[in-house]
Specification:
Pathway: Cell wall biogenesis; peptidoglycan biosynthesis. By secondary structure, the chain is α+β, with helices and mostly antiparallel strands. It contains 22 helices and 23 strands. The protein has 2 domains: 190 residues, Penicillin-binding protein 2a (Domain 2) (Alpha-Beta Complex), CATH 3.90.1310; 375 residues, 3-Layer(aba) Sandwich (Beta-lactamase), CATH 3.40.710.10.
């Protein structure tokens, strides 16, 4: 008989198994529930602010509103720097999914030339503040804008902004005086106020644009906008309008500036004109110039290399940074120094045999007129530009007194208020030479300084400023380029202005002025041809600065020299003598004698300012120059 298997259920065992399984299930469910709850708590409470902000940013965006840059006008209200509407391409890296793909697509759509692609990519990766747009390129064409608009769905984080762009109507003529704006670089970004410059891509780089950057820039605004998922603006939720920059009215006169530029006729040189009573710079030209508009949007590599390699140095501001020996233009200042120090009187005379010799020295320091001028007093020494008189005077003064007195006229130091990048040039001294060369000062070097040669160097702006102070009879007014900032006049009394020059006898000014008037109107004056037909009293002084030194018995012959080795031509002038309205300095590189080339340019400038209805004809001036260049006389 077979046994049947025990098929009865073990209820107790099954119950235990069920309970275990149920408990495990409950534990798993509870664990998952706790994890889910914990995650919800973390996201909703701990990370609430971050995700709330991110959510809001997906819908609401705050955009900076850059201010309009202040305009720049000349003294008569003629616009010198304006803002023209343009379209810029910007990129916010935080909103771009794949930067490399986006940049490649932009290069294709914009059809950028090969030489610009690298700079384009570098700008896209420059360090920026979070969510601040980086400027990729400016001044987009209509075709570029159209291609970008069609492909906008493929370009998240890329925007086309309509913004004013700086433009200079007379770029080459005004380039060195105004300067220019350019893209903000990484170093500037680190120092600029983040809030004030939000959305701003350009900043003053040189000249007036840089010196008055704070006033011209203004204050940035902002707007809050609602966007869709693709970042397109649906509506504006709020706005704080930007505050535009202050307009700037300069002391420059555009017509006088243009005349100076035309008179130089493309030659290397500079003309600076100042109103003595106010210190207002009426014209400040350096030639050759350059197109400053190229630098606003970013000059291409080839064009910039061309400017850098140009032998005429168009980027170099000769008016404020050019160093030139002043030549005989400094003789009126030395005459006053001799009077102040008691070395000479107005009637002191010397007998000029055509040279000067130091005691116990066989070397002859020659006058430009090799057979000499005979009996020479102070006024005649200025009229005929006698070197021997000033060799004697310099030796009697000594370098220490000479340095002190010339420093009173601003030589060897920065003299202007708002001329960015101005050089102090060099007024040599005993201490300077010891520090520079570790050598003593020699008497022969004093003689060279006495005729504006040797170590002495000036800038055209310095020379014009000293001439204005001379015309003011020693009263110092600091030169300046800004006349008004907004509606606020720039004051005449500016900080760090040099002390007035006091003379023991006020008639000494008259005697020096008389000698300077004879330079132009006297029968022996070195620039007497310049005074033909003069309708007002004018004082002047010619100068010739050597580019290289001649030997003891060598004679200067311009026809035998390469053009860049010829002497520089200089001239200073002010007029009218009884109430000076204008002081001028002219430097024309390698043009020969100052009594010919430079003197006629100075006369044309004073005519233009004083005879409003009789503006000089530039072509006539050039014809006179051609005639006089054949008969160079004096220095």
């Amino acid at each position: 008989m077979l046994k049947r298997p025990n098929t009865l259920k073990n209820s107790e065992q099954e119950l235990r198994i069920f309970r275990v399984r149920a408990l495990l299930a409950v534990l798993v469910v509870l664990t998952l529930a706790c994890l889910l709850t914990g995650r919800l708590i973390y996201l909703q409470i701990v990370q609430h602010d971050m995700y709330s902000t991110r959510s809001e940013n997906n819908r609401v965006r705050v955009e900076p509103l850059p201010p309009n840059r202040g305009l720049i006008y000349d003294r008569n209200g003629v616009l010198l720097a304006e803002n023209r509407p343009t379209y810029n391409l910007t990129l916010v890296r935080e909103r771009v999914d794949n930067l490399d793909e986006t940049l490649a697509l932009l290069v294709e759509l914009l059809e950028l030339p090969e030489e610009e692609i690298e700079a384009f990519n570098v700008r896209s990766r420059q360090r920026q503040r979070p969510f601040q747009p980086a400027l990729l390129t400016s001044d987009l064409s209509e075709d570029q804008i159209a291609r970008l608009a069609v492909n906008r769905h493929r370009l998240p984080g890329v925007e086309i902004e309509a913004q004013p762009l700086r433009f200079y109507p007379d770029a080459e003529i005004m380039a060195h005086a105004l300067g220019y704006v350019g893209r903000i670089n990484v170093e500037e970004m680190e120092t600029l106020d983040a809030g004030r410059y939000a959305g701003t891509h350009f900043i003053g780089k040189t000249g007036i644009e840089r010196f008055y950057e704070e006033e011209l820039h203004g204050e940035a605004g902002l707007r809050k906008v609602e966007t869709n998922a693709r970042g397109r603006v649906l509506r504006e939720l709020g706005r704080t309008d930007p505050v535009p920059g202050e307009n700037l009215t300069l002391t420059l006169d555009k017509s006088l500036q243009m005349l100076a530029y035309e008179l130089l006729d493309g030659r290397r040189g500079s003309i600076v004109a100042i109103a003595p009573a106010t210190g207002e710079i009426l014209a400040m030209v350096s030639t050759p110039g350059f197109d400053s508009n190229q630098f606003v949007t970013g000059i291409d590599v080839a064009s910039y290399r061309g400017l850098q390699e140009d032998l005429d140095l168009p980027l170099f501001n000769r008016a404020t940074r050019g160093h030139y020996p002043p030549g005989s233009t400094i003789k009126p200042f030395l005459a006053l120094a001799g009077l102040v120090e008691g070395v000479i009187t107005p009637d002191s005379t010397i007998n000029d045999p055509g040279y000067y010799q130091l005691p116990n020295d066989s070397r002859r320091y020659r006058n430009w007129l090799r057979w000499g001028h005979g009996r020479v007093d102070m006024e005649r020494s200025l009229a005929v530009s006698n070197n021997t008189y000033y060799y004697t005077l310099a030796h009697d003064l000594g370098i220490d007194n000479l340095h002190k007195q010339m420093s009173n006229f601003g030589f060897g130091q920065r003299v202007a208020h708002d001329v960015q990048g101005e050089s102090g040039a060099l007024m040599p001294s005993r201490d300077w030479k010891r520090g520079r060369f570790n050598q003593p000062w020699y008497p022969g070097e004093t003689l060279s300084v006495g005729i504006g040669q040797g170590y002495w160097q000036v800038t055209p702006l310095q020379l014009a400023s000293a001439t204005a102070t001379l015309a003011n009879r020693g009263h110092w007014v600091k030169p300046r380029l800004a006349r008004r900032i907004g509606d606020t006049p720039v004051p005449l009394d500016l900080p760090d202005t040099l002390d007035d020059i006091q003379l023991a006898n006020d008639n000494w000014w008259n005697r020096v002025f008389s000698g300077m008037e004879k330079v132009i109107s006297g029968t022996e004056g070195t620039a007497r041809r310049t005074g033909v037909g003069l309708e007002y009293r004018m004082g002047g002084k010619s100068g010739t600065a050597q580019v290289f030194s001649l030997g003891q018995d060598q004679r200067y012959n311009a026809d035998e020299l390469a053009e860049r080795l010829r002497d520089h031509a200089l001239f200073i002038a002010f007029a009218p003598i009884e109430n000076p309205k204008i002081a001028v300095s002219v430097i024309v590189e390698n043009a020969g004698g100052g009594s010919t080339h430079a003197a006629h340019l100075a006369r044309a400038m004073t005519d233009a300012w004083l005879l409003e209805d009789e503006a000089p004809d530039v072509e006539e001036v050039r014809e006179v120059l051609e005639e006089d260049n054949a008969n160079v006389e004096g220095n």
